[in-house]
Amino acid sequence: MSWEENVRKVEPYIPGEQPKDKNIIKLNTNENPYPPCPAVRKILDNFDEDRMRLYPDPDSDVLVSAIAERYGLKKSQVFVGVGSDDVISMAFMTFFNSYKPILFPDVTYSFYDVWAEVYRIPYECKPLDGNFRINPDDYKCENGGIIFPNPNAPTGVLENTEMIEDIIKSNSDSVVMIDEAYIDFGGESCLKLIDKYDNLLVIQTFSKSRSMAGMRIGFAMGNEKLIKFMNDVKFSVNSYTMNHITQLCGAEAIKDEKYFNETVNKIIHIRENTKKELSALGFEFTDSKSNFIFAKHRSMSGEEIFNKLKENKIFVRYWNKPKISQYLRITVGMPDEMKKLIDVLKEILS
Ligand SMILES: *Cc1c(COP(=O)(O)O)cnc(C)c1O
Hints:
Elements: E1 25-26, H1 38-45, H2 61-71, E2 78-81, H3 83-95, E3 102-105, H4 112-118, E4 123-126, E5 145-149, H5 161-169, E6 176-179, E7 200-205, E8 218-222, H6 224-234, H7 244-253, H8 257-280, E9 283-285, E10 292-297, H9 302-311, E11 314-315, E12 317-318, E13 327-331, H10 335-349
Parallel strand pairs: 1-11, 3-4, 3-5, 5-6, 6-7
Antiparallel strand pairs: 2-8, 7-8, 9-10, 10-13, 12-13
Helix pairs in contact: 1-7, 2-7, 3-6
The chain binds pyridoxal-5'-phosphate (PLP).
């Protein structure tokens, strides 16, 4: 008998590339091109390194309080984690323990099946329709839980909250998680439903709309009971997940509503302009309500455009997977980056 037989084997998630070369136009991991709000700079400038001797607050109270205040919730309705990847992973461990399969779309965030595999959770993928839309009836069968992003990734397609409420209502025996990583770029959050449904968990992140992907802050909002169960699991794995300086920066970042609205609106504006330019070049795309555009070209293959952009030091994301192998996922960057993208695409396509 070999020890290898007892290894928890799993095929890991592959994150988008983080190139060392500073000259690369990086439109491949949906980072925000704007810096975090100015108050974050102040926290960093005034930070006393002696504080590092001490463990951070295991409850992340300053951050939890700031999030609760921002969304009009009780602190007991907010769970924070090291990026929403950490939050979702904890939520899978906490709520998806049934022998029945959990459900998520066939085209979606490619971390869900990895978590399901690593935690040995059975799962079933429900096909999106030809326009990458969810059919709510697919989610009205026996299941051990449900998760999908809204807007979906990598399609950017937004579903309305009435349809999602229908799914939540029809599944009172399982936890429904809505991964709202991109909701701030033009969608309506399901947060308004958490008091009505005790099986709804809404998950958001500071990585996209708050320009803090490198800090690693994610959070879940839901019924107090759900949050308590998640904290019980978290404190059974690692109490000190989020460091002190991150807690302080996050708490400041969520208070600056003005800066948040300004930068989010700029990104929406650039996104819509870029859609027009791409359309003129023969691209077709979904009506993305996120900080990326999911586009395919009428004649040139997705893989070819991806490779040619890369040769020109422009990185976007491409998946050689069923249904989406002709598409590119292009993060919305600064106006000058989008101009360069369009110029290079013109050359490639000419
Ligand atoms: C980016 C993203 C996440 C993870 O974000 P974190 O950086 O871990 O907060 C989760 N879900 C979706 C759909 C995403 O696109």
